[in-house]
Amino acid sequence: MLRKDLKTEFDALLPGQSTEQGATRRTALKVALGVGYAAAAAPIMAQTAIKTTAAGLKTGEITYEVNGFKVPAYFAAPAGMTNLPVVLVVHEIFGVHEYIADTCRRFAQAGYLAIAPELYARQGDPAQYAEMSKLMTDVVSKVPDAQVMADLDGAVQWAGANGGDLAKVAITGFCWGGRIAWLYAAQGPVKAAVAWYGRLVGATNELTPKNPIDLAAVMRAPVLGLYGGKDAGIPLDTLDTMKAVLATGTAASKAAQFVVYPDTPHAFHADYRASYRQGPAVDGWKRCLDWFKANGVV
Q1: What is the reported pTM?
Q2: CA-based nearest residue to 205, from 162, 144, 248, 135
Q3: Structurally, how many domains does the chain consist of?
Q4: How many Å apart are CA 154 and CA 148, to the nearest integer?
């Protein structure tokens, strides 16, 4: 059965989502290359989707090994440069598709080595699912947090061996990835994190034993949380609860900040969807880059 807390969050992502669209068949590596959009993300708002040039960049797919499994990922970086700041880009429920690949290119154009691992790769290919409920039950609900943390560690190691400066690592994530950004900021080797509308509370089980609220007092890196005031899946009172716990914690916990955009829905940065809101998206992106700079990533 679909966990109620996850279903509530992701039901809010796609109001009116049809389950009639036929699933496309792509391999995880093709998705990691940013070829097209995940089927379950339809309908796609092509008129607002941002297309970032790869001119001057080195981009493409790679794999790196974690516990005997080759994790596929998309990366983008300024061509011919080393000692680059690194940003881990954590995907939404839909996996590494064109939107996430484009976000990596945006970071690369800003001077980062950006890497987006396909964190569901062991459980399945999200691009093959047209139905949100099937994607959740067959893939997303089966992904252990411990696996994700290890795969992110592997991405950091790959970056360090391929032009990245491991003294300057950050993480950002969207929706499902926003929650992961909070979790990794509590244990990963990052200097800063930006969580875009990541869930803070919820049910736990053996695969997802803790939520950000449970780790709020032990943050190792300061987190900037970007949220929508009209997010149907993330009540504003959960932000207040999180703030109260953060205030009792480490120096990094106390340094966390939140920005709430009034009258703004979930997934407001997702420029390929109807939820996109240009003003908050542009402002949030600037705040993200500024947050990384202020915390020593660049």
Answers
A1: 0.89
A2: 144
A3: 1
A4: 10
Does the active-site annotation cover 231? yes
Q: pLDDT tens digits for the chain (298 residues)?
A: 333 333 333 333 433 333 333 333 334 444 444 557 877 777 778 778 999 999 999 999 999 999 999 999 999 999 999 999 999 999 999 999 999 999 999 999 999 999 999 999 999 988 888 888 899 999 999 999 999 999 999 999 999 999 999 999 999 999 999 999 999 999 999 999 999 999 999 999 999 999 999 999 999 999 999 999 999 999 999 999 999 999 999 999 999 999 999 999 999 999 999 999 999 999 999 999 999 999 999 9
Range of the domain at 181: 4-294
**Maximal C-alpha separation, the chain:** 49
175 is catalytic: yes
Set 102, 145, 151, 231: catalytic member: 231
Tell me how far apart the alpha carbons of residues 266 and 63 are, in angstroms, rounded to a whole number: 31
Please report, for the domain that includes residue 120, its CATH number.
3.40.50.1820
Peptide bond into 72 cis (omega under 30): no
Q: Exactly one of 175, 269, 271, 288 is catalytic; name it.
A: 175
Catalytic entry in 102, 125, 145, 266: 266
